[in-house]
């Protein structure tokens, strides 16, 4: 898809303009929910420390289980996922969440990759900096302007120099991530500061009544999510973009071995279904 210039987050009209014969599968949220439930049931059955990333992606931490072989464990999980959901899965295994995620990229599609601590340096040396999580387009351009393209090149830059060029927060991130350092712990989610609902595909308004009907239903969804969280909103933000993108946002108050699993795609009943998994040991 990337060869055609099509990527995630692109408007459908732009994707079809670049690829007129693009086949678009309809949404099947019921199927997504079914597979996500099966996916997480499998993870929680085999691991106590599970951190959800999305409906098809999670981190697992089995660092306290010294008798478990990470690669065998990952293979077992992937096998059970495909047998239960008909979705293949890829797994990245390493000493922390960052390296596990990077390992998963090497494992796709439908494979697994283990990066032990002694191989982290060789894995990262020639890795493009833009392959690291948290490196957006603007930061990538800024790094390129300084002729910094690989993690190995970043090693030659002091932390103080990175602070001066990119600020303390981003400088620390670049210095640590380029060396495979990630001190985040699995299972410690960030405090929820907002509850949102959005629809960015297939929304077409022909009359004011259509808009009102859509906003009422979207508001009901937000209200339902707030009740589930036991929260009360103090601010409401409404964002409208390009006449077809609407968002309502309510702002509310030992041994480490990381496994990252990412499932592939399979058509079932004409619907393209996907599933991902991340894990930490």
Task: Write up what this structure looks like.
- Belongs to the DNA polymerase type-Y family.
- GO terms for molecular function: damaged DNA binding; deoxycytidyl transferase activity; DNA-directed DNA polymerase activity.
- Residues 4-136 form the UmuC domain.
- With 281 residues, the protein is an alpha+beta fold.
- The chain folds into two domains: 28-190 and 255-281, Reverse transcriptase/Diguanylate cyclase domain (Alpha-Beta Plaits); 194-252, no CATH class.
- It has helices spanning 12-18, 29-46, 70-85, 97-107, 120-125, 137-145, 151-154, 159-166, 168-177, 208-229; strands spanning 49-54, 57-61, 89-94, 112-114, 194-199, 233-241, 245-252, 258-263, 265-268, 271-274.
- The strands form three sheets. Strands 1-2-8-3-4 form a five-stranded mixed β-sheet.
- Strand 3 (89-94), helix 4 and strand 4 (112-114) form a beta-alpha-beta unit.
- The longest helix is centred in the C-terminal third of the chain and has 22 residues, at 208-229.
- The two termini are 33 Å apart.
- 26% of the residues are buried.
Question: Topology of this structure?
Answer:
Blueprint: H1 12-18, H2 29-46, E1 49-54, E2 57-61, H3 70-85, E3 89-94, H4 97-107, E4 112-114, H5 120-125, H6 137-145, H7 151-154, H8 159-166, H9 168-177, E5 194-199, H10 208-229, E6 233-241, E7 245-252, E8 258-263, E9 265-268, E10 271-274
Parallel strand pairs: 3-4
Antiparallel strand pairs: 1-2, 2-8, 3-8, 5-7, 6-7, 9-10
Helix pairs in contact: 2-3, 8-9
